């Protein structure tokens, strides 16, 4: 029965909200549903603790119990247009339908009613007509600066009357008529009042929030607002042009050619950096941007939103698109307005005829206005950034060359890494000779570095790699170059697979085996190949007599080695939770990645990603069982001891004292099994 009740409530909630005509009505209806258990026409309200600010509640706020990051308490009040009756539950009675003057007294606007009488407006709002009155709440008048209030009440017949007339429109406007971006001529010299109706249900007039709407009267309608509004006569550029605190911004706007745009019609939001904000930027960087029209335009457009966003419309962090093309997260923390999580807004809601200005004390610099060095310095790749500078590559990263920087994460470097000639050469190969986007890279594409070598692009299902280094974060696109953050220090290919094996003493026995099997040419071919290279330790684990027997049969030896080789290139970054690889001979190999280690058939690789021009080598100390015994399997009898042991090898019970990984095969135990097999009587 309880489940049925919840289901019915959910259906009712969805149906009523879907039938709502506007975002405000959706929120109001949600508040009605949340409050109906307290009686008819009761709305649930959320009040921010420690303040007088109340909101009708939406689903998200209801469950989070937070607005602007601050906890809220729930209260239940009469919905707009209704009142309580003694002895009755809820708010069953509609408010008496009286004129606007008398309505002000019963909807929380007694101060507006008092000032209306003092300004001799009473007769007008008691008489015939059809008006809309955006009436400031009692708290709104109390919050008005003393000097402004004194100026109004000292000249009630002109200043106060004009101010009140600006809150009035000579027609009836319900909340449904208050469309986003609309403007209506007020009763003060026809100066417009500007309406914004946001997706979260907030409705503002000149950036003042409507806290109670649709209070009907015989001669119009009353909407209660949370502040006293003033007439708007200037566009946003006029603010910038006349405020000495925005002098640097004014110069920048003119240099970027944005003056005409900020003077034209629109609904802009400008986060205006003060002179102080510009002074915080290193002079060299600031002068470079101010002297570069493209970077300067990007910088300024990053401070301008495509739509008008009043401070009161923000109840949580919201990503909003800028004219520069990227987004800013506009949010709030209590009474503070935030940008990208920082409370840097000093002054809010300076309203113009074509938008709103919020003053900020910190300059927002988009990636598109930065050099490669500045991109790196602003990211969490401090070790690589310092090394690039120490290697003498700062001039490339600070200049105007079209480059792409491959920047390894801090964890990719050993602690206390020191600059050497070899490291300088390696870092130079982390800089590509063109500005790239990772979205346009394709498999087997070749990229040339400043060091003059070619790097391969490797595309896998869940990763995009350049040689052994896989991209670990979204691209950062700067003024002249791009930066890819990668998970490893790049290992450029320095020869064929055979060259790699010959250069490493760990593979001396394998090199001899390859030559014996007649596979040298294969290891030098264009490929691509992935080789699981047996180390000398792997060969040493085999009894000498049987190893000699295997080495004396080139055909069988070649078969065994081909179980350790695939005709594609697979680096460790391309290995997922269940990756399969078909070797040149035998069944598919099962690969997975655990704790940054590649496992093949549940056995860990010793060292991954030894890059070659025709593929990649992974160092391996345990030979694949089905490879070593491929020639024996042709001779073994069904049900023999070998058959039993081979079938059970992957299920060896591991001693936890020897190996923490119970699913793996511990090397010493494998060696014991191999030795046991080789000591068996001949079949």
TrEMBL record:
GO terms for cellular component: extracellular matrix; extracellular space. Gene3D superfamilies: FAS1 domain. Residues 94-229, 233-364, 368-490, 494-624 form the FAS1 domain. The keyword Repeat applies. GO terms for molecular function: cell adhesion molecule binding. Keywords: Cell adhesion, Disulfide bond, Extracellular matrix, Gamma-carboxyglutamic acid, Phosphoprotein, Repeat, Secreted, Signal. Residues 1-20 form the signal peptide. PROSITE patterns: EMI (PS51041), FAS1 (PS50213). Pfam families: Fasciclin. InterPro entries: Adhesion/Biosynth-related (IPR050904), EMI_domain (IPR011489), FAS1_dom_sf (IPR036378), FAS1_domain (IPR000782). It comes from the Eukaryota. GO terms for biological process: cell adhesion; extracellular matrix organization. Residues 39-93 form the EMI domain. The keyword Cell inner membrane does not apply. It is found in: Secreted, Extracellular space, Extracellular matrix. Binds to type I, II, and IV collagens. Plays a role in cell adhesion. May play a role in cell-collagen interactions. This is Transforming growth factor-beta-induced protein ig-h3.
